[in-house]
Amino acid sequence: MAEKFLEEIYADALVLDDLRECLSFMARTDYYNARLFFNKGMARLEIMLAKYAIENPDSANEIQDFALDIIDKWGEWSYISGMIRGKLIPMIYEYMKRFCTIDVEEGNFLLKSSDSGFLTMKDIEENMFIHDIHDPMLEAGDVADMLYHPLIEDYVLYGCGLGYLPYKLWTKQVVLLTLLYMRTIKEFLNMQSTMEFWIGLTKRTLKLEMHQIIWT
User: Fold this and answer.
1) Is the Cβ–Cβ distance between 149 and 157 less than 8 Å?
2) Which residue from 6, 24, 156, 165 has the least number of CB within 10 angstroms?
3) What is the pLDDT of residues 1-14, one digit of tens each?
4) Same structural domain for residues 46 and 89?
């Protein structure tokens, strides 16, 4: 799961997650953290646009102009929020749909790109998607918001799919995640490498325990 090309796609897709976090902090008038996440998103966006400019320089320049306008207008919160939500994020979605497409089978699962660039996963035998088909990271964020409580540091999850929910809980300062799973050793190793990739994106550590459940 942590092959080079997937890491690049996820790094691009995380621009969207950073911008949504920026909007969330802005709505709570936490402008310090809003700027931190905006800056994180812009650092990722700079790398993304360098690749995008090769295929579509006009669109890449347009995205860059919107980003620079937001920086120039920083402090005009209504304007900035509207620009990020109504212009910048939709343009990045369009980029992800055009340039970050994967549709491959791996065992009993189909790995498929969502509109946001993050992979979703379908159980072929059950004919059921395990993650949202449009934006699995956004879905995981909504679930994490429902589950998270500041007085709870340890969580137990039954399965984690491609790792979005554990990652979003971890970003909320959760320090211990216990994952229960019923997959094969190969799938366990894939899941572990996925989690190592997500958590490796930043420096704060997470105590991660995994336990396989075997029905008798």
Assistant:
1) no
2) 156
3) 445 656 777 778 88
4) yes
